[in-house]
Structures are given as structure tokens and as C-alpha cells.
Amino acid sequence: MLELTDSARKELESYFADKEKSDIRIYLAPGGCCGPQLMLALDAATDEDQSEEQAGFTFCLNKDLLARIQGVKIDVSQMGFTVEPTVPLPETGGGCGGCSGGCSGGCGSH
Questions:
Q1: How far apart are CA 46 and CA 52, in angstroms?
Q2: How would you classify the pairing of strands 37-42 and 24-29?
Q3: Are 104 and 33 spatial neighbours (Cβ–Cβ below 8 Å)?
Q4: pLDDT tens sequence across 13-49
Q5: Please, which residues bridge with residue 12 across strands?
Q6: Are 35 and 90 in contact (CB under 8 A)?
Q7: Which helix (H) or strand (E) holds 72?
Q8: Residue 41 in contact with residue 109, Cβ under 8 Å?
Q9: Torsion sign over Cα 64, 62, 66, 90
Q10: How far apart are CA 85 and CA 58, in angstroms?
Q11: What is the model's pTM?
């Protein structure tokens, strides 16, 4: 279900260095120019989730969403964490016109 890069693992270890570890949810957020995107949040798993432990961190993902995307790769970029689905999400577009800089941010970030 999950691939966690070394750089993402190091970022998580740094973040939780002085905090108690909690579950990390992978969720589908409404997108800006490029449609919905996968994001991370601190949130406990529920009965509707699939959980997996990687490098001492517990990740949870809604079972229906997991069935759609088949898995994820979590990495780090200059903009923060990136969560890439194994099966790409449709690029349905958002409410702003003229996103010419790719899908790295929301409206007004180009």
C-alpha cells in the first residue's frame, strides 16, 4: 500500500522528535487547478481505514480510496510532503483558469 522515501522518513522523524507520535492519515483533498490531491494529516484510524506501519510510523487510508488508487508513495519536495497515488487521480480542474505552472499548488501560487 505504501512507499515511504528516506527523505520523507527523515522529515517525519524530525517533526516528531519532540512530540508524541500519532497516526498519519492519507486523504483526498479537493484540488485547485489540477483537481483533487492526496494530502497528509494527523488523525486516528477508524474502522473504515486500512492501516500500515512504515519506519515506526502508522499511516491510515480509507479502504474505498485505497481500492481506487492501489497505493501511495510519500516523498518530500521544496513545497513539503508529496503523496503520489499508484493509480493517478483524474485531473478534473478547479475554479481558476490558466494554471500554467503545473499542479504544484493552488490558485494564485504560480
A1: 13
A2: antiparallel
A3: no
A4: 999 999 999 999 999 998 767 788 999 999 999 999 9
A5: none
A6: yes
A7: strand 72-77
A8: no
A9: positive
A10: 18
A11: 0.80
